[in-house]
Every structure is written in structure tokens, then in C-alpha cells.
Amino acid sequence: MPTIDKTILITGASSGIGEAAVRELAGTGARLFIGARRTERLEALAQELGDNVAWRALDVTDAADFQAFADAAVERFGQVDALVNNAGVMPLSALAAVKLDEWNRMIDVNVRGVLHGIAAVLPRFVAQGSGHVVNVASVGAHMVMPTAAVYCATKHAVKVITEGLRQEHDEVRTTLISPGVVATELGHDISVPEIADGLLTWRKKSLTPDAIARAIRYAIEQPDGVDVNEIIVRPTAAD
Ligand code: NDP
């Protein structure tokens, strides 16, 4: 007997929090359509977890690709009930370094990617009179610190977009999940060695991705009349 009888799209499912969310939700009987660019990882995960998990290559920075991803999920499972916008990147640097390409990549993945996801599912959610958008932001949606101005700006944007969606759509549930430090591959692309080293120190007190996966599951498994709008999950006694 499934505890979640829904079809759920999950982005950034090839590692970290996304992969953990797939593992957590697969145990509920939900049908999962998972995407990322490293398809060999998606394929292995789907193979391990069984027929309720299907995958397709996805680059969230490409709106047409995101629409094709959502359409493929409908073709495979007949419907879409929820979207977990989890894909994200965090190449931290000081503003003075003027790493324009990295700023743009964060905006493209973390902000445009979330909007492309909403664009791909919202008309369907409106037509069917229900749906759920879960956006993975960060504690960086609530604060800023040196080297993280652009990353935090993207996460502030995700917070505001999520709240705007909630206000505009009675039929759509919206959830913002804001993790603190989680031990994942995030930041592997930091191009400033001292900042990359600093991240390792920062991660000494960190959550494992399953902690965030449980928060995502909690939000999704509530009855349709219950909208969990925001969850912040930090390691205990984090700064
Ligand atoms: P990971 O680096 O492990 O996962 C990031 C995922 O995003 C990967 O699956 C990657 O897949 C995917 N991704 C990146 N770019 C694209 C793209 N253009 N199109 C599709 N998928 C893409 O990090 P986390 O699991 O930690 O990150 C997940 C989310 O959690 C992010 O939004 C992050 O900002 C947020 N977060 C993480 C925290 C942490 O401490 N780890 C803290 C707060 C928030 P692929 O490369 O295969 O495409």
C-alpha cells in the first residue's frame, strides 16, 4: 500500500540531496521521474530502485528541455503531481574576483532552472486543480556572507518565487526547503583554492543528505489540504 500515490519529478537526482530524496521517496511507492546531466548515475539509481523510478537527461538551464522532461514523465506515468526543484550549483567567490561566468551559471541553474521547472508544470497543475512545487533553497535564502553574495542572491530569489507562487495559486501547494550545511558534492566547482579549503572546514559539522530528503518527504506526504510552506534544517547547534 503506497503512502504517497503521486508522480513526482526530481531534478538534480544524480547526487547529494536529490539522490537521497529519490531513495527516500521510492520507499513510499511514489512514482518518480528523475533528471540531471550525469545520466549514468540516474540509470544506475533507477535500475537499483525498480520500475517506479524512471529517468531522462535534463539540463534545467534549458526551458525546452525541462518541458520535454515533464512531458516524458506524463508519457511514462500518465500524470505529474509534484516537482522537486533541487538542482543547484555553488561556485563561491568574492565579488571583487569578477567571475562573471560563475555568477551567470548560478543564476542560470539556481534561478532560471527553478523558473523553467515551474513553467513546465504550472499549466498542468492549474488545469488539474492541484499540484505541489518543492523548491530546495538554502539557509543562504535567509542570510548572506562573504564569497556567497551571488549564491545567496539566487537562493533569496528562490524563496521569493516560492512565496509568489503560493500567493497566486490556491490550487498549488508550495514548499521551500532550506538546508544548512550538508555533506555533498556541492561546491566541487569552486575555482578559488582557499574558499574550497574553507568549505571543507565548514563541513566538519554537517548533515547527511537523508536529513533533507526526510523533510522533502514530510512536505509531500501531507494531505492535500495541508501546505507545508517552509522547512529549515540545520545540523544541531550550527552557527
Ligand atoms: P550536489 O552537487 O550533490 O547536487 C547538485 C545536483 O544538481 C546534481 O545532481 C547535479 O547533477 C544537478 N545539476 C547541476 N547543474 C544542473 C543542470 N544544469 N541541470 C540539471 N541538473 C543540474 O549538491 P547538493 O545535493 O548539496 O545540492 C542540492 C541542492 O541543495 C542545491 O540546490 C543546493 O544549492 C542546495 N543546498 C545544498 C546545501 C549543502 O550544504 N550541500 C546547503 C543548502 C542548500 P548533474 O551535474 O548530473 O547535472
From TrEMBL:
InterPro entries: KR_dom (IPR057326), NAD(P)-bd_dom_sf (IPR036291), Sc_DH/Rdtase_CS (IPR020904), SDR_fam (IPR002347). It comes from Novosphingobium chloroacetimidivorans. GO terms for molecular function: oxidoreductase activity, acting on the CH-OH group of donors, NAD or NADP as acceptor. This is NADP-dependent 3-hydroxy acid dehydrogenase YdfG. GO terms for cellular component: cytosol. Belongs to the short-chain dehydrogenases/reductases (SDR) family. The keyword Acyltransferase does not apply. It comes from the Bacteria. SMART domains: PKS_KR. Residues 6-168 form the Ketoreductase domain. Keywords: Oxidoreductase. Gene3D superfamilies: NAD(P)-binding Rossmann-like Domain (3.40.50.720). It holds the Pfam family adh_short.
